[in-house]
From TrEMBL:
Regions of compositional bias (Basic and acidic residues) in chain numbering: 1-10
Region (Disordered): 1-28
Pfam family, one: Ureidogly_lyase
PANTHER family tied to this protein: UREIDOGLYCOLATE HYDROLASE, UREIDOGLYCOLATE LYASE
Family annotation (InterPro entries): RmlC_Cupin_sf (IPR011051), UAH_cupin (IPR047233), Ureidogly_lyase (IPR007247), Ureidoglycolate_lyase_dom_sf (IPR024060)
Subunit and interaction comment: Homodimer.
GO terms (BP aspect): allantoin catabolic process; purine nucleobase metabolic process
Source species, domain of life: Eukaryota
Source organism per UniProt: Ophiocordyceps camponoti-floridani
Annotated protein name in UniProt: Ureidoglycolate hydrolase
Listed GO MF terms: ureidoglycolate hydrolase activity; ureidoglycolate lyase activity
Listed SUPFAM superfamilies: RmlC-like cupins (SSF51182)
Keywords for this protein: Hydrolase, Lyase, Purine metabolism
Amino acid sequence: MSRPNVDIKHHVPLPPYNNEEPTTTSSKQMASRLKMQVRASERQTITAEALRPSTFAPFGSVIENPCPSIHPSSTAAASLPSNASPANDGTAIQYRNVSPMTNLHQGSAAKPRMSIFACATHDADAGPLAIPALERHPFTTQTFIPISSPASAYLVVVCPCRAPEDDDVRLPRWRGMPDLRGLRAFVASASQAVTYEAGTWHAPMMALGSEGQRLDFVVVQFASGVADEDCQLVRLVPCEDQPRVVVGQGARL
C-alpha cells in the first residue's frame, strides 16, 4: 500500500473554538456542519479485510455474539463468559457491556439519538470503490446495527488522525485531519454491528450487494444539535489519486 501525502483545504471558515469543550454557536453555524477538503497526492488502493474485533480495536468495537455455539438453556451457565448470564427463565443469554456508549459533551448539552439509515448498495464486483468523504463525531461514539434487509454485508472504512496543525487548531476536540496513510477497510456481515470510537474518522457507510438492494441500520449516538460539534466532514477531492477500496474474495462473507 502506498503512503500518500495530502493537501488540505478548508471549504468554510472555522468557528472560533478556543478550547476542547462545546461552545455556543449561532443558528447559522448550527445549520451547516463543518466541511473541509483533502486531496491525495499519490494513488492509494486499500484491500478490505474481514472485520474482526482485534484488528478493528484501534478505531472502535465490533458487536457480535461472542459465543454463537452456546444455545440458550437452563444448563448453559457453566459455559458462559464472565459478562454473560442466563435470562428469561433460561430461554435467553444476556451478554453485558458489549460496546461502550461515550458522551463527551459537558452537562446536558447532548441527548441520546436513535435513527435509521437505509443505505443503497455498492457493487464490489464492478471494480474498486472510491472513498468520497470521511467524517467524525468528536464528542460521541456512533453505533451502526444492521437490521433485516436484502443486502447482507457492508464495508467499514476508518482512518487515524494526523498530528494537529496550525490550520485546524480551532477545531473542537480531537484536532487533526485524516491521515490517509493509515486508511483501513473491513467487510462486515449483517450479524455484526460496529461502534466508532469518539473522534474516529470513518467513511459514510457502504452496503455491499447487487444493484437496487439496500441495507438498513439502526444508528445510536449522542447529539447536541450543534452541527460543528455533532459531525465534521472532509471531502476527498475526486481525482485519479482518490483512495479506493478493493473487496477481495477472501474478505467476502
